[in-house]
Specification:
The chain is an alpha+beta fold. The protein has one helix spanning 3-27, and strands at 31-32, 37-38, 45-46, 49-50.
Length: 55
């Protein structure tokens, strides 16, 4: 796999992870309050969220 192919695959995976984060926030009735942060090698993603009980 070339470097450009790896970069494209990483970009698709990051987009997929962001979609999962948005879906999870909506499921729990939360609003994302900051930019998502990725963990080691894009294996996790997180952000600050606001909900009915606060942050």
């Amino acid at each position: 796999m070339t470097a450009s192919e790896t970069a494209a695959a990483d970009a698709r995976f990051r987009a997929w992870m962001r979609d999962n984060l948005h879906r999870a926030a909506a499921h729990f009735g939360l609003i994302e309050a900051d930019e998502p942060v990725f963990g080691w090698r894009f294996r996790s993603i997180g952000t600050v969220a606001d909900g009915p009980d606060g942050r």
